[in-house]
Amino acid sequence: MAERKPSQIFLSRGGVLIPTSGGNLQLGIPPETIKDTMRIEGGVPRTFIVPKAMFDVQHGVALAEMEFPVYYNFFFRKSKTRIVCSEKQRKRIETVIAEALFGPAEVDPVLEFACGEYTPGFTDLKAEMSYFRKSMIEGRCADLGDLIEFCVPDRRGKAAFGETEVRFDRRGNIRVYDRGKKIASFGGDAPVMVRKTPLARVSLGFQPPIFGVTTLGAGHGFDPGADTSGLILWVNRRGIMVDPPVNSTEKLAALGVSPKRIDKIILTHCHADHDAGTLQKIFQEGKIHLYTTRTIYGSFMKKAAALTGIEAGLLERLVDFYPVCIGKPVIIGGGAFHFHYTLHTIPTIAIQASLSGKSLVYSSDTMNDPNFIQQLYADGVLTKNRRDFLLNFPWDRDLVFHEAGVPPIHTPMSYLCSLPEDVRKRMYLVHVNPDSVPDGCGLRIAPTGLANTVDLGASPMPREEAVEMLEAFSGVEWFGQMPLTKAREFLLAASVTHHRASDIIFSKGDAGEAFCIVMSGEIDIVLEDRILTTYDAGGYFGEKCLFSDEARTATARAKTDVKLLSIRKEEMLNLIRGTAAESLLRQIADFQNVELRDAVKDNQILDSLSSTQKTRLHGLIRPFPGTLHTGDVIASKGSDARCVYMIREGRVDVYHRRSRIATLSRGDLFGVKKIFRPKEKNFSFVAGEKTALYFIEQDGLRRYMEDNPGVYVKLYHSPY
Predict the structure, then answer these.
(1) At what angle do helices 464-474 and 486-493 cross, to 10 degrees?
(2) Residues 636, 652: contact at Cβ < 8 Å?
């Protein structure tokens, strides 16, 4: 653990500030940490130390998100940012910053346009990126050396600058000296993120609109008092996140909005104030549908691979990518979407959406000033096709979300203030600071939060309850793979009931008569005043009653107002008979019990999963036959194990080259590393006392992890 001294400041967004005679240093650079240091004496550091781990798997955020500190030091202070890191880290950081500052090195967007270069608004991305890059430094294109200087430790692990020295040892431990005196030390595995108390869950009973917008954040990357710009577009009551701000997904979950209700993301571009929360959402729960252009997706994956240390090819398996085509509509959630490239430093898309005769547009980051656009055309940067398209911005939409900021990479406020009154009445500003909005201009900043959701008043979709029922059913992974012919059978069998908070849905000892899926709200499963688990939207229970006449083993109590989908036992069995769902539910019914729940709870990674994720995992975990005794070898170095093990009770010792290097206890996993690195044969596992185990087949766990990207990332760097 880090030595907590008055001279060290643990920042609220993560990272540790270390004052020195030469100015502040910072260890760990999570997203938006600059918003903390802008308020602290000494301000934003010029020097940053990259920790051993460049990605925090528990929080789903990078710890080397250097983009905004680099911007700040370069544009405001006219100085370089010093980064203290290893040579391997240097290459990864260079990849991230180059992609964010200058965009992808190679672009060929022709195939992204419906009619190639003849598509209205066809974009010469290379020419536009080159223009903005040249504008950073007069007379030539800027390069990384103009903005950053790396300080890589020498062979002795020392990195010196001025009167400060940072020393690293082989285990990643860090010591900081100033004028020859040690002022700070950190263990190699010491967390740089502040452990936060889980947000209190307060259900607002929020009902998403048929078509509308919730603003998650309306600020910019240098605004300490606001979350960065991000939206939820509600289409047929399902959410599509647009550039979600960091931590927005956990805030929504705390307000009762299930992650399963928001399973799509539109990524507009790869600046850190737009894509850092995207990466976090991808690692939350279940596979995300990601919509953007191939150019932006490639850039995002390149950054994500460098930040997480996981190859891009593996990361791509964790996301369902849907490339958008510019110049023709894309149907998402039943709404019609159009996209076009904006005028920005790196490839960026704007969004238009329509449903039931209502429409909206989101500009994303752009320089949308006609005079500037005309000048770029005169300078030969833009073609006539591109100029005319940009000058024809769709101001006539029912709702306009537009950014404003500092030219030449953002739209000047003065231009937006000059727009006709009827346009300004339909416009909400994002990416702005309240102080930049002139009094009396008729413009307003988008209000944030669920309570301020803008409803466009679209007509309800036909057969809405049937659609909602099908969504709840197909949202359970194995039901979603059932043939379409089962839909009629399901709708005839299922019923929907409503329950008030504190209602008892069934009690322990009641006959098990139905399988249930939560459509909205939360339900506690209670045994003798102990809450075993809580299910929210998409959660399901009652699988035991399908395969036995055993009475209910616990009580189900509504934690909030609940809408519940139920299917009676006989009808459910008939529905799933002969499908994969039948065998999977049977496994859960056979093996899920209090003992297994407690073992999972003792595993820090698995305990962080949602109740639905745990239920599915329980179907993969089986008791290992027999009991192991002290000295029994479970898996030896070089063995071709096909299973991953979890300790049910007892102790397991880990050996490397005949030396015991670790001792594992209840809930700990081992054998995971073989999934990712099957050729490594470094460890042996031996029972340290009388021990009982669970086991999971590798193939089953691999499929589970690919369906749950956050679990994949958390287990990827597993030591055993």
Answers:
(1) 110
(2) no
Q: Which amino acid belongs to residue 381?
A: V
Map tokens 């009676």 to a residue. 568
Structure-token match 């490639």, residue found: 298
SS3 state at 139: coil
Q: What is the largest CA-CA distance in the chain?
A: 82
CB 268 within 8 A of CB 230: no
Structure tokens at 213: 């917008």
**Domain 464-591, architecture per CATH:** Sandwich (2.60)
Residue 2 reports pLDDT greater than 50: no
In angstroms, the CA 191 to CA 276 distance is 19
118 DSSP β-pair partners:
none
Tell me the three state secondary structure of residue 117: helix
Minimal CA–CA distance to 84: which of 16, 156, 7, 25?
25
CATH topology of domain 211-455: Metallo-beta-lactamase; Chain A (3.60.15)
* pTM of the model as a whole: 0.92
| Separation CA 347–CA 107 (nearest Å) | 9
Give the integer Cα–Cα distance in Å for 17 and 415: 40
Domain ranges for the chain, please list them: 9-86+152-186, 211-455, 464-591, 622-716
Element (H, E) at 335: strand 335-341
Helix 87-102 × helix 294-308 angle, to 10°: 160
Tell me the angle at which helices 698-707 and 709-716 cross, rounded to the nearest 10 degrees: 120
Dig out the tokens for 455 from the structure. 């409803």
Distance between CA atoms of residues 535 and 572, nearest Å: 20
- Using CA atoms, how far residue 459 sits from 211, 212, 361, 464, in Å, is 9, 12, 19, 11
Token code pair at residue 580? 């994969």
pLDDT per residue as tens digits for the range 182-216 = 999 998 888 888 766 666 666 667 889 999 999 99
Question: What is the sign, positive or negative, of the torsion defined by CA atoms of 182, 187, 190, 192?
Answer: positive
Strand order in the sheet with 494-499: 494-499, 562-568, 514-520, 540-541
Q: Give, in order, the Cα–Cα distances in Å from 516 to each of 467, 474, 482, 591, 693.
A: 17, 13, 18, 19, 31
Ramachandran region of residue 168, left (φ > 0), alpha (ψ -120 to 50) or beta? beta
What is d(CA 46, CA 59) in angstroms, rounded to the nearest whole number? Answer: 25
Range with the poorest average pLDDT among 31-40, 362-371, 372-381: 31-40
Q: Which CATH superfamily is domain 622-716 in?
A: Jelly Rolls (2.60.120.10)
Q: Cα–Cα distance between 457 and 211 in angstroms, integer?
A: 7
Dist CA 324 CA 322 (whole Å):
6
464-591 matches 211-455 in CATH topology: no
* DSSP secondary structure letter of residue 104: -
**Tokens representing 370?**
């006609």
The pLDDT score that the predictor gives to residue 453 is 96
CA distance 273 to 447: 18
Q: Do residues 213 and 187 make contact, with C-beta atoms less than 8 angstroms apart?
A: no
Sign of the torsion angle spanned by Cα atoms 596, 601, 607, 609: positive
Distance between CA atoms of 19 and 33, rounded to whole angstroms? 16
pLDDT at 520: 87
Q: What is the rounded average pLDDT of the residues 408-428?
A: 96
Pull the structure tokens for residue 665. Answer: 């206890």
Three-state secondary structure readout of 515-537: EEEEEECCEEEEECCEEEEEECC
Long-range CB contacts (< 8 A, 24+ apart) of 659-664?
662/719, 662/720, 663/688, 664/720
> In what side-by-side order are the strands of the sheet with 164-168?
158-161, 164-168, 174-178, 181-186
Q: What percent of the chain has pLDDT over 90?
A: 64
